Amino acid sequence: MYSPPPDLADQQRMRRAFTRSAATLGATVAGPEVWGWHGRTLSSHVEHPDRGACWLRLLSAPQDKAAGKIWEGNRQAAALFDGHIHKPLLYDTKKSGDDGYAYHAELHQYIADPIASSSPVLRADLDPPTEWWESLRTDLEHVNTVSTHRVAVRQEWVDRTVPRFLDMPGPRITGWTTAHGDLHTANLTSTTPYLLDWEGFGLAPVGYDAAMLLAYSLLVPTFANRVRDTFPVLKTQPGRDAQIIVITELLQSASRGDHPELVPNLRDLAAELA
After folding, report:
1. Which of 14, 107, 16 lies closest to 56 in space, CA to CA?
2. Local confidence band at 1 (pLDDT 50, 70, 90 cut-offs)
3. pLDDT averaged over the chain?
4. From 149's CA, which of 10, 96, 129, 219 has a CA 20 to 30 Å away?
C-alpha cells in the first residue's frame, strides 16, 4: 500500500533523513510528500539551483538489508536506459546512514506529466490514445533488447510458488528477456507515457511486463483488452506462462494484505489459461 509507515517514529525518522538528503544534494523541498509502498520510500518535488525542478526519492532500509537488486535498481537502470526511452533521468545519488538505518537518495528529472493512476490496481478506464500505446510498446521493445545480469524472476521461485497458489505445476520458462519488472498504471504517466520506478528491473519471462500490466488492469475490461491488443505476446504460450507467473506473484502479495480485490479476477484468468 502507498502510505506512510504505521509507526509514527518511522515517519519522523524518514522525514528527518529526507530533509538531510535534500540539503546534501543542494535541493529545496517544493512539493507535498509522497510515500511509497508500505512507507519504504519518501519522495517530493524539489528545486535544484542547477537542474531546476527535480524529483527527490529517498529509499530506506535497515543497515543489514541495504543492498541488492532493489537498493541499486534505479542507478543501474539509469546507466542502461537514460536517454534511450521515456524514463526520468537520474541526476545524482547520495547514500547515508543513521540510527541503524541506511538511506539512498536519488535526484531525478521532474516529470510534470501526471501518473496514470494513483494505485497499481486500475479502477477506471484511462482510454489513452493510440500514440500512448505505441510509445509504451516501443519503449518496452527496446528494454527487451538490453543485456543485464539482474534477475527479476527466478525459475526456482516459479517451481515452488505456482503449485502453492494455483494448484498446478509451475511453467518452465523457455525465453528470458529484460523487463521493467513492475509495470502498472501507477508507474506510467498519463500522456507520454514515461516509465517510472525501475528498482525491480531485470531478466524475466518473455511477456512479463505485458502480463503484469494486464493483471493489474483486470477490474477494467476495456483497458485490459487494449493491453491484450497491444501486446500479442500474451496470446502465445510464453505469454500465457508469463501470465500464470504474474498471477501467482499477485496472489502471494494479496495473501499478505495487498490488493485483495484483485483475487477473484486473478483466479478467473488463471482458470482460463489452465
Report:
1. 107
2. low
3. 95
4. 96
Long-range CB contacts for residues 262-265, cutoff 8 Å, separation at least 24: 262/121, 262/215, 262/216, 262/218, 262/219, 265/218, 265/219
The pLDDT tens digits for 174-214 are 999 999 999 999 999 999 999 999 999 999 999 999 999 99
Q: In the beta sheet, which residues pair with residue 104?
A: 59, 95
Given 3.30.200.20, 3.40.50.300, 3.90.78.10, 3.90.1150.10, which CATH number is that of 8-109? 3.30.200.20
179 forms beta bridges with 202
Where are the chain's structural domains? Answer: 8-109, 130-273
Beta strand ranges found along the chain (DSSP E)? 28-29, 34-35, 41-48, 52-62, 90-98, 101-109, 176-179, 202-205
Q: Whole-angstrom Cα distance, residue 89 to residue 50? A: 15
128: left (phi over 0), alpha (psi -120 to 50) or beta: beta
Express each pLDDT in 102-133 by its tens digit: 999 999 999 999 999 999 999 999 999 999 99
Euclidean distance between the first and final Cα of the chain, in Å? 30
Give the three-class secondary structure for 179. Answer: strand
Of 3.90.1200.10, 3.40.50.970, 3.90.180.10, 3.20.20.70, the CATH number of 130-273 is 3.90.1200.10
